[in-house]
Protein 1
Amino acid sequence: MDEQRDKQDDMIIEQREAVRMMQDYISEHISEEITIEELAGCASFSPGYARKLFEKYLGMTPAVYIRRLKLSKSALRLRDEKLSVLDVAMDMGFGSVDGYQRAFRREFGCNPKEYALCPVPIWLFTPNLIINDERKMSDMSEIRNVFIQVIEKPARKVIIKRGIKADEYFSYCEEVGCDVWGLLTSIKSISGEPVCMWLPKNMRKPVTNVYVQGVEVEEDYDGIIPAGFEMIELPASTYLLFRGEPFADEDYVAAINEIWEAEKKYNPEFIGYKWDDTNPRIQLEPRGERGYIELVPVTKA
């Protein structure tokens, strides 16, 4: 029985790794035309089996996944770059402008030209990248560096979606859903990306709601606040930015723990500060290529 179970586990790992290879291939070639034969080739399976595995682990066909990702990437380009709808449609590999416009409207409920002129919050597609759970608890036991930097954040507002009792990412996803990140990504941030925050007691509502996801915007922001979200004000504040070294995706848990241990051990009084419990602690999206990053608020000692 143990041998049979081990073979089953090995097969699941192999399947998940194949799906992740297809996801990586799509990400690297998203502006090109991608065929199922190319995806199957990078995963070393037949086209039919590759499609079956993709649907099994991601809940959609490769074609739907590629289309939704292309449309979301195109929306960010329309928001941030001075490009025509024609240029974006062609650059992202759509066969025609008309087809692109129809697909954009079906996905986001608005016309791409209108969106380019006046971007509004939309539900962007944020893929769930496959990570093998069997590997994510690596202890990364080699000697690694943690970099610490003092940064200043200006007075600003943050658009957030609250939970009820969420105190970390997984409990937040259970309460609120994991797709909130896509909507937040569509809102242009002064820090370049959405953030996760552990709120201090003075900002919690209800008092049990510690962890939220949000997007930092200008202090004078007067744009749309999506239904179910709210906007709070944050004062100008000082932070210690803790950043670890780059890590493999499956090591994200160890990378987070690495920074948490560094925060526990660090005494900010060495550089004339003390911890500030009136401002939120900030977590950036764990991206292996840049290292895990957290910002911890401090004030002059």
Protein 2
Amino acid sequence: MKSVLVIGAGKFGHHLAEYLCEMGNDVMLADENEKLIDEYSNQVTTAEIGDFTVKSNLAALGVDDYDYVFVCIGDFQDSLVIVDYLKELGASCIVAKASSLIHEKFLLKNGADKVVYPERDMAYRMAVEYNSSSVFDYFKLSEDTGIYEISVPDTWVGKSLAKINVRKIHGISVIAYRYEDRIYAINSPDYVFSADEHIIVMGDKNYIKKIAK
């Protein structure tokens, strides 16, 4: 179980706080909007109302006690101020939400350990998924690397992982397969590919795109 502080109860922030709480974490949701806190307080462990661009209000939350602090504030200036104060107050890991590339750049300069850009990331994920009828899901790991759920290539059906030698020939790793609604890890080179399954592969996006075609 992790101890998490989510600052900002907008669409992204309150969903993040709710999901983290459902996963068994201790979550505090904080926002200056009393109406939002009243609406979502029953979905998290605790909730707090206040203007957290004021350093003393932020300090009162005991930010250095949390494993993660998520800053989900849409306002450019306010999010920079909060991240800066969090760094000064000793927050151990600050994850901030950006609304633009310049916002991302300044959040990192102000002390954010990681920046997420949900709109851009979701747009790219959808573009990848709908660009090919063979790609069903996607998770970005870096600019060049990702995890993809794809159809089994026709030439692989009935053959084992070892026989195809996927990693050496294609430069990717096959890590799991999906059958119906369940995902199973692939732990043996003797795994035989089937046409009625999807496979979960990890590697360079350009190599995976060639296979997905």
Protein 3
Amino acid sequence: MDKDDIAQAVLSSLGGRENVQYNTVCMTRLRVTLVDPAIVDYQGLNEINSVLGTATRGQNGIEVVFGPRVIDGVYHAFVSLTGVQAGTDALFPMSRQESSMRIQINPPKQREPEGTSVDVPLMDEDELSMLDDLFGETEPDASGYASEKVGDARILVVNGPNINMLGMSPFKGFPITDYPSLLELCKAEAQRVGFSRCDCFQSNHEGDLIDSIQDAYGVYHALIVNPGPLTMPSPALYAAIYAVDLPTVVVNLFEPTPLSFPQLEGTPAVTHVAGKGVEGYREAIAQLADQVVA
């Protein structure tokens, strides 16, 4: 199945165009706000090629989980099919207390290799592709990222609380007026300076941010983190940054207080850009490209 076929199958399982109110995208998930979630065909969704699982959020929200290589193409195809651009209602993460995750990965098919009568579980091409989307094609070196500049450099942008509210107070006046536009800026700038892939993640929950940073180990070569209001009180967040040991730029849209970066003292691998609004992302991407892009 290509991205258009996948998007069409997802839309059909969600109940068709008339059941879609809003949609947006995060690092590996298509987020959709539905008119009637009761008509969703969850079994059908989980049987679609490249769908890794689903998560329900709140009363009317659903997230369809893909690998990082698949999500962008499927999202744009989904938008083309529905004609629905990202809406403000879809950008607010829904309550975890009203959420549930349904993950279904079919077991590997049994195949009998030539020259033996022993049944050995092997994966078919679709399943291997799915694992490649999850873990990437290349093995990291001992430090978890390329120790020298590479031609296939990948960057992860992690955004903390309230960054999804761009365009609203206190973010009014920025040239970027919504979160999807910020994602487009990051991806376009990363491509311009030579990164082969740029993935973006946002959450209002500190644990999610730490998980995403830890998951970057061995997959990405550079990291941008905008912790938002977590900048001062979050030693756990900075401990995760140190643990993965990636070239990192911490971005703050506004000028931080002098005590905002106590954990960064004496850590030359981590720099920060502050007080430049969304343009700080461009500067951070350029700095990291100088370090890791061949």
